[in-house]
Amino acid sequence: MLYQCLCSAAERLSSQCLALLPDLSSWEAALPERRRAWLGMLGLDPLPQRSDLAPVITGIVEEKTFAIRKLHFQPLPDCRVTANLYVPQDRPGPFPAVIYVCGHADPAKVWYQEFARWFAQHGYAVFILDAIQIGENRGIHHGTYSFGFWHWYSQGYTPAGMEVWTAMRAIDYLETLPEIDASRVGITGNSGGGTISWFTGAADTRLKVVVPSCQTGNLFQHIYDRTIDGHCDCSFWVNHLGWDLPDLAALIAPRPLMISASTEDILFRPYAFRDVFQRARHVYRLYGQEEHIHLHEAVNKHGQTSKCRLALFSWFGKFLQGDAQPVRDDFDGSKLPAESLAVYAPGEQAPAGDRLATVQDFFIPLPAGDLPEDKQSFAVHQEQSLNRLRSLTFNNLLKSLRTYPQWKYRPQGQTDEFLYRTFEFCSEPDMPIRLQAALPLQYSASRKMLLGPLSQEARTSFSLQASDLAESKCKGRYIRGCVEVRGTGATSIGAGLLWTCRRAFPLVGQTLYERQTLDLLQGGRVAREAIPGLTGLYYFGTGESAALAIYAALLDPECRGVVLKQPIVTHWNGGPEFLNVLKTGDLPHNAALLLPKSIAFIGEVPPEYQFLFPLAAKLGCLEAVSAVATFADWN
Question: Does one domain contain both 238 and 103?
Answer without folding.
Answer: yes
